[in-house]
Amino acid sequence: MTATSNFGVHSEVGRLRRVLVCEPRLAHRRLTPSNCDELLFDDVMWVENGQRDHRAFTADLRERGVEVLELHDLLGQTMRIPDARGWLLDRKVVADDVGLGLVEGTRAYLESLDEDRLAEFLVGGLSTTDLPEDYRTDYVSLARESAGVNEYLMPPLPNTLYTRDTTCWIYGGVTLNPLYWPARHDETLLMKAIYRFHPDFVDAPVWWGDPERGWVGRRSRAAT
């Protein structure tokens, strides 16, 4: 399937041609015994073993002619597009999540990153200790004192491993699924950015969901 092909899944038993996966990376290194329950993981992960198994699995897929798309790579490619970067950071770096006094510095730091490093933080999370001194304010100290040294300005998203949850291709369109648990909400936001702006998917028909009203519409781009 090329970038100009029609997308879709029309069979449960047909040949798999293209698949989206997410390799264990920074988000999974962030898992600790004290935060794994909140992040919906039963335990911490041995990341190196997870990466080894993941790469063996994707190598097997490629040997069988399947095109493997990696989420971090797609997100990085999307973040090369200025409108995409602005759209996503407008929704990720907000006062209710980051803290009113930390929005400006956090946004400036993320804007300064290249697209691959930005994608790594968008999935892997940004802690107060990741923010360089030039972008810090006194509010960083307050955040660390109130919630401990591992306070996250953007929490890690380790459940991005489960790419089948956030989006589903059904016949000729794709759903963007509103996940129930707060720890997973931003996963769908990342996928919205990819389907809205990435040149391979920008024309894909998208259904989006409302947590209270269910599926509410269809557009050629992800809903704002």
Describe this structure in words.
- It is an enzyme of class 3 (hydrolase).
- One of its GO terms (biological process) is L-arginine deiminase pathway.
- There is one protein chain.
- By secondary structure, the chain is of the alpha/beta class.
- The protein has one domain: Pentein (Orthogonal Bundle), CATH 1.10.3930.
- 41% of the residues lie in helices and 14% in strands.
- It has 10 helices and 8 strands.
- The protein has a 4-stranded mixed beta sheet. A two-stranded parallel ribbon has the order 1-2.
- Strand 6 (173-176), helix 10 and strand 7 (206-210) form a beta-alpha-beta unit.
- The chain is globular.
List keywords for this structure.
disordered N terminus; two-stranded parallel ribbon; alpha/beta; 8 strands; Pentein; cytoplasm; 224 residues; four-stranded mixed β-sheet
Secondary-structure map with pairings?
Layout: E1 18-21, H1 26-29, H2 47-63, E2 67-70, H3 71-78, H4 82-92, H5 95-98, H6 103-112, H7 115-124, E3 126-127, H8 138-147, E4 152-154, H9 163-166, E5 167-170, E6 173-176, H10 185-197, E7 206-210, E8 214-219
Parallel strand pairs: 1-2, 6-7
Antiparallel strand pairs: 3-4, 5-6, 7-8
Helix pairs in contact: 3-7, 4-10
Subcellular location: Cytoplasm
Enzyme class: hydrolase
Family: Belongs to the arginine deiminase family.
